[in-house]
Amino acid sequence: MRRLRALLSGVATAALATAGLAAFAAQQASGASADATALSNRWYAAAPYLMPHDNNPPDAGAIMDASGLKAFQLAFILAPNGGGCSPTWDGTSPVSSDTAVASVISAIRAKGGDVSVSIGGYGGTKLGQTCSDAASTAAAYQQVITKYQLKAIDFDLEEPEYENTAAIAREIGAAKILQQNNPGLYVSVTTAGTADGTGWFGKQMLNEAKAQGLTPNNFSIMPFDGGFNGAAAQTSALTNFNAILRTTFGWDEATAYAHEGFSGMNGRSDTGEYFTQADFQTVLDFATGHHMDRFTFWSLNRDRQCTPPDNNGKTSGTCSSVPQADWDFAKFSVKFAGVTPPTTTPPTTPPPTGSCTAAAWSAGAVYNGGDTVSYGGHSWKAKWWTQNETPGSTGEWGVWQDLGSC
What we know:
By secondary structure, the protein is an alpha/beta fold. The protein has 13 helices and 17 strands. Strands 1, 2, 3, 4, 5, 6, 7, 8, 9 and 12 form a 10-stranded mixed beta sheet that branches. The protein has a 3-stranded antiparallel beta sheet with strand order 14-15-17, with no helix packed on it. The chain has a two-stranded antiparallel ribbon with strand order 10-11.
């Protein structure tokens, strides 16, 4: 999974794990880092992935201004490339001496947003592989939580770590310790998706969580890079994953969905699958309709149009390889979070022509799915919630369905 990441490029003590909350409070009191005002859990659940060091990082503030996005999933925390049990960004930049990512976080918070941090990902050496036990693994992650005053963290457990039962046991144990020592911490656990929901190693991870008594806010699957053909295959996998959660934890369907998440890939995947804006809308409707806990994607670095738009049939870490406007996919996260996008200067509305009976479209009005308007001599029906999106401006994939001439 996520093969693109495989191409990129002091030891913690167990005492840090048990002292984490006190250290966190002390740092807040001292003002040692930018103040972190917690967002609602819904925002952390909607946070798309952003690599702050690699893949031509976009400006987070610009994304916030353009889309209304408030939360970012910064990736990835790994063990040092040379070995050891201390947290680094991408295996190369020690968290202990970091100023670059801290600056990004401060800028996001200054605009009213916040971040979660993701640990693991595809490729690289994970702390669960190098630390000696769950306590020392948790201590390493507590350094990250304390330094950045985190209210949320993501355990991205996949290749090659999730094939290592001892490493996964340490990661799950660390997640439980962090929950206990940081009350209110939002914890997501992300793993590979298959047509059946998740594979053998994903099921093994769930069984480990059950054995250790870990209940995170959600278990999320990544239904891509596994022969998926658009949204229908993804929603089928989410349905199957729900059954796995019910069987594993003894939950009913609604409880399982309330602990289930989706982590997609926008545009062209590593294996040549395509997931368009229309696919994202379908999965978003499924996620909200079933009251799922999380909707995210890989990645904001890719939420831009390539040149040419199809990138000559190749997958890129810096653009999506599908036709799009910048941050099209981020707007689905905003919809999931249930927050109204920012107001922009409305375009001039041309007067309706012909014999339209529906009210004229207004840039400042809020429309819900099923509402009809007239614009440019045509009638239009909203497919979902919208404001300030001109009928016809984004073609057949937009919010407005053209009902024809009045």
